[in-house]
Amino acid sequence: MKQFFKFVLATIVGVIISGIIIGVVGAVLVIGLIASAGSDKTVDVSPNSILYMSLKNQITERTPNNPLAGLDFLGLNEDKSIGLNDILADIKKAKTDDNIKGIYLDESYMTAGQATTEEIRNALIDFKKSGKFIVAYAEVYTQGFYYLASVADKVYINPKGIFEFHGFSSQTTFLKGALDKLGIEAQIIKVGTFKSAVEPLFLTKMSDANKLQVTSYLGSLYNHFLTGISKSRGLNRDSLFTYADNMRIQFPEDAYKLKLVDGLKYKDEILNDLKRRTGTDLKDDLKSVDLRDYAKSKNDDSDDKEDDSSSKNRIAIVYASGDITGGDGDDNSIGSETISKALRKARLDDKVKAVVLRVNSPGGSSLASDVIWREVKLIHEKKPIIVSMGDYAASGGYYISCAADSIIAQPNTITGSIGIFAVLPNMQKLFNDKLGVTFDGVKTGKYADLGDISRPLSPDERLILQNSVNRGYDEFTKAVAEGRGKTQAYINSIGQGRVWTGEQALKIGLVDRLGNINDAITSAAKKAKIKTYNIVSYPEQKSFFNKVGSGLSAEVQTRMVKNELGENYRVYQQIKGITQMMRTPQARLPYDLVIK
């Protein structure tokens, strides 16, 4: 027995020591990887190089602070996303970089939103003013990528490739049938004839009002798409409409004959063309620098670098991207606490002369939106604040924008959707009929169990919730009316949950002008009456070590689910979003708004 305890004790000690050694080695490995991956090594750009732009990975508002991005470690090898901020900065820098002779666009499946694509497209148009070339090539042209590529000097496609040009469509997934089979009733309380976010829960097809608004904003987006291509390719807009409407382009040679592309080429032919353009011998390798690496190159004469913390004149860019929630949020959501803190910091910092609020959000919690709106209003009372809208700035996303001095949107930004709704599930049939579960209890007041999901709402309870939602809508429209200098009655007439494009919103007074984030920065500087300034960004991005202790595992899990479900991840998100909508009144867009 004595020997047995010695053996057990030795085993335990061995396991402990082994664990410590493995932990130390693992920590050293992680630190080593971070040191090697995160070290700010300067990238040298050789003369006669091209800037290689492949945009197949997710484009976020800011490049994530992840030193292990691209490394096959802890499941992070899939995190190759790049920020719009870096893309725009790189294109601007390449314009005046003597070592960069041109840009090579090489992509098929670009997933960026329409306003994000617009920002990049406009930056490429500006780049062309330098006299440098842009060449685009793809085996498959989606409509989104072709819209971007159409500004190139030459657009080429693989002879056996695919060219999509058939118009826009938008489809909604309805869940009512599934909920009925499960015995779940979605009890809807809303304000807004066009507030369609809840329709998938209680309808099996689009309402007439929703179909009207989708037809309107989809037509606006499509018109802008065709007009942009018409201008960049020198083609008649009505002819382009006819080509798409009649499926005139089914094969690459069709696109060539109709002058949407400049040639049918294989990849080796493209590379040889680029070598000739850069004066490179056909036997030598083409000199190129990737978009990600170019950000680390020496020639960085950008006016808006964030490297001078002592500057007396600053413009703060506060990034608000994702669903609006209460609390801290994360890299993919707008936490009211985090964004409010960032706005407050910018307001109280005397060195910050103006603020640009970059909004890319479909909305979310109406309460959290109001918390952020308050901080925007306080800044407006003290110093200039300009809103720059991204792909979405709708519902709660518009709520947090409306108190600014002015609002700048892209023509294809999705905005408006001024409305409020709440959802409370009635799961009585699921519990009673499907699961055989029943409930009983006591209460001290008539409404003590208001919100109980095991039974339907009474008429009185529904009225109480409707009054709450009505009040939220009244406060929403009042805030917009005050911020936009309109009457509340007028805001109600263009509100009702209706979705507008940026182009439409300009006409009805919901935005002040069309433009990009740089236009917003320039406007902020002008209003602050400053000519020289530095840019500071808020909120501070979480470091890798912060993520290890908090949200890293959830981030890895999300990527795994995305990889497994592919395009069906959208449906998964929709179902998951139902639980979020059942917590508090919501000011959000239809959460499955997809335009193809």
Dominant shape: globular
Helix run count:
22
Percent of residues in helices: 40-55%
Structural class: alpha/beta
CATH architecture of the domain at 49-165 and 249-295: Alpha-Beta Complex
CATH topology of the domain at 49-165 and 249-295: 2-enoyl-CoA Hydratase, Chain A, domain 1
Distance between the termini: 73 Å
Architecture overview:
This protein has 596 residues and is of the alpha/beta class. Strands 10, 13, 15, 16, 17, 19, 20 and 21 form an eight-stranded mixed beta sheet that branches. The chain has a six-stranded parallel beta sheet with strand order 8-6-5-4-1-9, sandwiched between helices. α14 (396-399) links the parallel β15 (385-394) and β16 (406-409). α16 (459-484) packs across α17 (488-494). It is globular. The model is unreliable at 22-31, 33-39, 72-77 and 300-307 (pLDDT under 50). It holds the Pfam family Peptidase_S49. It is found in: Membrane. InterPro entries: ClpP/crotonase-like_dom_sf (IPR029045), Pept_S49_pIV (IPR004634), Pept_S49_SppA (IPR004635), Peptidase_S49 (IPR002142), S49_SppA_67K_type_N (IPR047217), S49_SppA_C (IPR047272).
